[in-house]
Amino acid sequence: MAKPEDKTILIVDDEDDVRSYLEVALLEAGFKVRTARDGFEALEAVKEQIPDLISLDLVMPRKSGVKFYRDLITDKAWAKIPIIIVTGHARDDLGKADLKELTMSGPGIYIEKPVKPERYVAAIKEILGLDSTKEEQNMANQLKLQNELKDMIDGADPDMLKKIKAALNSKNPRS
Amino acid sequence: MSAAKTSRALKELLFDQFFQQLPFNVAIIDRDYNIVQANNSFREYFGEWEGKKCYAVYKKQDHPCSRCQSLQIFEDGKTRVIDSVVVDKNGQWSHHVVQSAPLMLSDKGHVDYIIEISSIVTDTAQWQQEFNILFDRVPCYVTVINEDFRIVRANEAFRESFGDVLGKYCYEVYKRRKSKCPRCPAAKTFKDGKMHHSEHTGIGKAGQNIEYAVTTSPLDRGRDKVAHVIEISNDVTRLKKLEKEVLEAERLAAVGQTVAGLAHSIKNILMGLEGGKYMIGLGLKKDDRSLIDRGSEMLDRNFDKTTTLVKDFLSFSKGRLPKLRMVNPNDLVMEIVDLYKDIAAKSGIELKADLKPNMARAPLDPDAIHTCLTNLVSNAIDACLMGEQKGSEVVIATRDEKGILTIQVTDNGTGMDYEIKKKIFTTFFTTKGGEGTGLGLLTTRKLVQEHGGKIIVESKKGEGSRFIMEFPRKRLGMLHEETEEE
């Protein structure tokens, strides 16, 4: 089984604090880490050395996450790099369309800011198929489920939402 | 020949030659509607008449007309002029004026016959009728007023809304005033003979407010002096109400966008706090002093961000309605230029003003406009610095065209690509890393929207940007009235 030590993660985010926070968290988990401040820098980094996974912010100056992604998939080798989206714009006008484009055609998983370090690491380990503790697995599964639910809720019409609510109420007699 | 004979011959001659040849339709009718005599013209026009009733000939109907005026002549002996629609021998209807007079065989005052002389007036009558319909039925108010400002004619729509108004002073009727209205367009038309337009608030007969847009034009064409003015007004009450609602909706939308933006901004700060907390925890666990320091710096920075955000936000949320005062927009621009000229010059950027001469004053919130311009100018200076080109300049220009007052800030700095342009107003978007809160443009837009205006961005990457604040003067006026009421 592969170990985090064998994997290089590229973190792309325009906020200094976010970058160093995620970097520390991944280093702590044993990963090798490289960073980029926007889509341009990220593309340079990929050219230099193909990472095993890219942690991508959506809204960035100069070159946004989705623009970077569009460039990335023009290359066959690059297109295979798994991506995890870390965004604060999952549900506003600014990021919604971009996120949809990305999750529909590509990476498929996103984490909404603010991010807990354990959850972030767990999700990455899950994507890369790395050995993880039971706790990490639980967290990764939870995130997956959350993503699926969010997508469903975002895509649902009001009638569907009512049905979901009714279903939840019947399964959960406490409420 | 005897005198009597001569007289009879003359009468016969009169009848044959004169009566028969008259170029009008002439008929003599008795009390029982029988036509007893008629001339050639009559026969030609209506066809055979002998032994027929007048209504059968005139109208081609089998019963007397319901309001026969000629019948009354038999009673009172008075001559009448009657408007009548008649049908000719081919079944074609036409409009006639009929002169109807009594014929008395004796001098006892007893009317034996009546003589009717009719002539066709179809064209004129039709025009008259069409004009009347047009005048009454056009879906707007039409009045004609004389030099004393008294209403001499008013159409149906006007009478419906304002009541019976003939002879009254127009200002009394329109606005229930005792004297002429200020900004009276009719007065201008009386003076210069030209068309004028303005908007007013009137009071209807039920006491309701009626917003109307009025156009006045001289009724006397080609004469030296205008004696009558025709006022054509449209009821724009509903339109005004809609305009106000749109204005209100736009202001509410601005609030909604702001709340969404706030949520995002807080998310970012939380992310920083989360990171700081994590690093300190990790540092303590590993006894790594530098990690603790980095974490604590991160916390500091994000607490500071919270403070700035709250401060900005308070100023952002201040005052729903702008505090409008009549000011000269050019003066506001010059204040900003004077304030930032030196700072810009230190960075090698020239800050200039390009002002419309003789700018009319406008109701604006000077503090709000000051904030907007400060934001836009500071952005423009940043854009120039990022562009790193020589001969950078920022120009604040004022314009006033087609009822829209514009203040625009143009730079020849770095410019924006489509992605950024799309996003600058949508949330707390900043390209300045940790420096900006991303509130500047949002605040600017909110303030502009509160003035009933909008902000437009034109930008090309590498060539510079232009931020245009547009204020429709009409809306400013509306807001001004509204805020004065409160």
Largest sheet of chain A: 5 strands, parallel
Q: Kindly name the structural category of chain A.
A: alpha/beta
What gross morphology of chain A would you assign?
globular
Uncertain residue segments of chain A? none
User: What radius of gyration of chain B results from the CA coordinates?
Assistant: 41 Å
Cα gyration radius of chain A (Å):
17 Å
* Order of adjacent strands in the largest pleated sheet of chain B: 2-1-5-4-3
Helix content of chain A: 40-55%
Number of helices of chain B: 15
Could you state the order of secondary-structure elements of chain A as H and E? EHEHEHHEHEHHH
For the biggest β-sheet of chain A, the strand order reads: 2-1-3-4-5
Quick check: average pLDDT of chain A?
81
**What's the quaternary structure here?**
heterodimer
Low-confidence stretches of chain B: none
Strand content of chain B: 15-25%
Shape of chain B: rod-shaped
- What is the count of helical runs of chain A? 8
Number of beta-strand segments of chain A: 5
Q: What percentage of residues of chain B falls in helices of 4 or more residues?
A: 40-55%
- Terminal residue distance of chain A: 44 Å
Arithmetic mean pLDDT of chain B:
84
Q: What attributes does this structure have?
A:
heterodimer, A: 175 residues, alpha/beta, 5-stranded parallel sheet, 55% helix, B: 486 residues, 5-stranded antiparallel sheet, 17 strands
